[in-house]
Design goal:
254 residues, 10% strand, 57% helix, 5 strands, alpha/beta, HTH rpiR-type domain-containing protein, 2 domains, Arc Repressor Mutant, subunit A, Rossmann fold
Length: 254
């Protein structure tokens, strides 16, 4: 399979189809900003049908739009690893990254303190997560329960409905939402939007990647920034594990 970015650039320059050029232009914009559209959003922005986008994807031997986005993200990560100036992976990078985590947590100290105060005031914590951060959300659940907070989290999407209704009706609880990656429209539309309409915004806390933070209100938002333009999943996992320990290590249920 040819490089996707190269294919998009060539499409923009040489393809005779205006539709293909619009699709390529919008995908390159997503690549550069790390803000990927849903299939429906790309269809509307490109003034074409969703089937036209699927046909476009098959020109580079991909099954559809979802696979294209995943491959494009992987391609960019590889590019950043190999080509971005001043990024040198290894032991020094890891130690520098730990310093970066410390500085980010310090900058977000008020968010952490507000979250801990809310936990102490309420009796229960509901956690909802995108697919990409499910294992991290489960770690938050395990550690918050270890520290004495009753915590509800299901890693199975089918069971989210009951949790949503309970989270809406139980005012004596707070809600934590993890948002990252691209396959999360269901989390925004079916969970966040519903909860936001029915609960006080001060009880809703969000941890979001920078690329996804534009989809939600900025109140009680902890934005996960990238270090030197790059933070692969393995590094983000370290960041969030340390954040969890920072929140709960000195936390005590009153």
């Amino acid at each position: 399979m040819k490089a996707i970015k190269e294919f998009l650039l060539n499409t923009l320059k040489f393809d005779n189809s205006d539709i293909n050029k619009k699709i390529a232009k919008n995908l390159l914009e997503s690549y550069n900003t790390d803000k990927y559209l849903s299939l429906k959003e790309l269809s509307l922005k490109s003034y074409c049908s969703e089937s036209a986008i699927t046909k476009f994807c098959k020109k580079i031997e991909l099954s559809g739009y979802k696979e294209l986005i995943i491959c494009l993200q992987i391609e960019k990560e590889k590019y950043l690893r190999n080509n971005v100036e001043n990024i040198s992976f290894g032991q020094n990078y890891i130690f520098d990254y730990l310093d970066f985590i410390k500085s980010e947590i310090t900058l977000n100290r008020q968010w952490i303190e507000n979250f801990k105060i809310s936990l102490q005031e309420k009796k229960k914590l509901y956690i909802f997560s995108c697919y990409q951060l499910m294992d991290i959300a489960n770690f938050f659940r395990e550690y918050s329960e270890f520290k004495g907070t009753r915590t509800i989290f299901s890693a199975i999407r089918h069971f989210e409905g009951r949790s949503i209704q309970n989270a809406i009706s139980e005012n004596n609880s707070i809600i934590l939402i993890f948002l990252s990656g691209q396959d999360n429209n269901w989390l925004i539309d079916e969970i966040y939007s519903v909860i936001k309409k029915n609960r006080n915004s001060k009880d809703i806390y969000i941890i979001s990647s920078k690329s996804q933070s534009n989809k939600i209100e900025q109140k009680n938002l902890y934005q996960l920034n990238s270090y030197k333009m790059y933070s692969g999943y393995e590094y983000r996992r370290i960041y969030l594990d340390i954040l969890c320990l920072t929140i709960f290590e000195d936390y005590k249920r009153i």
